[in-house]
């Protein structure tokens, strides 16, 4: 069996964490949970499920995932979010390969579900993500949101990760609020300036891109759902970027 450490970063993930850990245990001989000071039962459930649990104040998406890899005993890491789990074809794929120096990392296709419905519209599939990597060669970048493992020597598998994007609109709005805040911080870090017009122009373009360029208009209600939620998320992150600058200016005047 390949020696792999599964890593999961968490914050109030009691709803999904046991499933995520059990899924990783099907291919990993160790699972590490790095928790961002959850106030629910996430850590207790993780320990009972057989994971090694550590606590770290949230550093941002990429930095937190990179930090989680430091607690692993193995060089090969499978990074997974708490609301994801491995499809059977991915489990079988991992069992049939021999991890060696031929590749630095492996990417997989992700199926995003809203409730029980698989959303393929407007570019939501195949949603290729690199999750299995050799930490001695590559690792996550330190972006605050939408961090990724950058690797040239990568094997592109067609097997799947299952992602529960959201099960209700309340849950999706909560996630968008969190992710847009992280995206705004990254934009600020990247030096993107404040703008009163950018939230409007960028959200309109995001809607147009998903609906027209990505073909959402031809994909029924799900195409419009993806386009509208992407537009809203885009508006939020650029508005929150303006808020960061407003707070900075207020602090400088005091």
Helix-strand blueprint:
Blueprint: E1 4-10, H1 17-24, E2 30-35, H2 42-48, E3 52-55, H3 61-69, E4 76-79, E5 84-86, H4 88-96, E6 105-114, E7 117-119, E8 129-134, E9 154-166, H5 169-189, H6 198-213, H7 220-253
Parallel strand pairs: 1-2, 1-4, 2-3, 6-9
Antiparallel strand pairs: 4-8, 5-9, 6-7, 6-8
Helix pairs in contact: 5-7, 6-7
Overview in brief:
The chain has 7 helices and 9 strands, in the order βαβαβαββαββββααα. The chain is of the alpha/beta class and 254 residues long.
Please give the largest β-sheet: 9 strands, mixed
Question: Into which percent range does the helicity of residues fall?
Answer: 40-55%
Average pLDDT reading: 93
**Structural class assignment:** alpha/beta
* Topology, number of strands: 9
Shape: globular
Radius of gyration: 19 Å
What structural keywords apply?
alpha/beta, 9-stranded mixed β-sheet, 9 strands, 41% helix, 254 residues
Describe this structure in words.
- With 254 residues, the protein is an alpha/beta fold.
- Strands 1, 2, 3, 4, 5, 6, 7, 8 and 9 form a 9-stranded mixed beta sheet that branches.
- Strand 1, helix 1 and strand 2 form a beta-alpha-beta unit.
- The chain is globular, with a radius of gyration of 19 Å.
């Amino acid at each position: 069996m390949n020696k792999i450490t599964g890593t999961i970063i968490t914050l109030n993930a009691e709803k999904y964490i046991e499933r995520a850990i059990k899924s990783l245990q099907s291919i990993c001989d160790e699972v590490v949970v790095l928790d961002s000071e959850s106030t629910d039962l996430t850590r207790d459930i993780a320990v009972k499920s057989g994971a090694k649990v550590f606590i770290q104040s949230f550093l941002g998406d990429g930095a937190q995932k990179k930090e989680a890899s430091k607690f692993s005993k193995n060089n090969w890491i499978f990074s997974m979010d708490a609301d994801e789990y491995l499809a059977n074809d991915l489990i079988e794929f991992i069992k049939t390969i021999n991890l060696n120096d031929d590749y630095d990392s492996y990417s997989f296709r992700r199926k995003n579900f809203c409730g029980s419905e698989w959303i393929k519209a407007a570019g939501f599939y195949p949603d290729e993500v690199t999750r299995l990597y050799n930490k001695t060669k590559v690792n996550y970048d330190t972006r605050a949101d939408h961090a990724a493992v950058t690797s040239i020597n990568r094997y592109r598998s067609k097997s799947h990760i299952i992602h529960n994007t959201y099960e209700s609109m309340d849950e999706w709005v909560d996630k968008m609020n969190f992710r847009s805040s992280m995206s705004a911080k990254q934009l600020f870090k990247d030096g993107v300036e404040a703008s009163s017009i950018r939230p409007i122009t960028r959200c309109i373009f995001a809607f147009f891109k998903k609906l027209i360029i990505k073909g959402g208009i031809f994909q029924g209600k799900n195409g419009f759902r993806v386009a509208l939620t992407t537009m809203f998320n885009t508006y939020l992150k650029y508005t929150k970027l303006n808020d960061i600058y407003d707070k900075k200016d207020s602090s400088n005047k005091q």
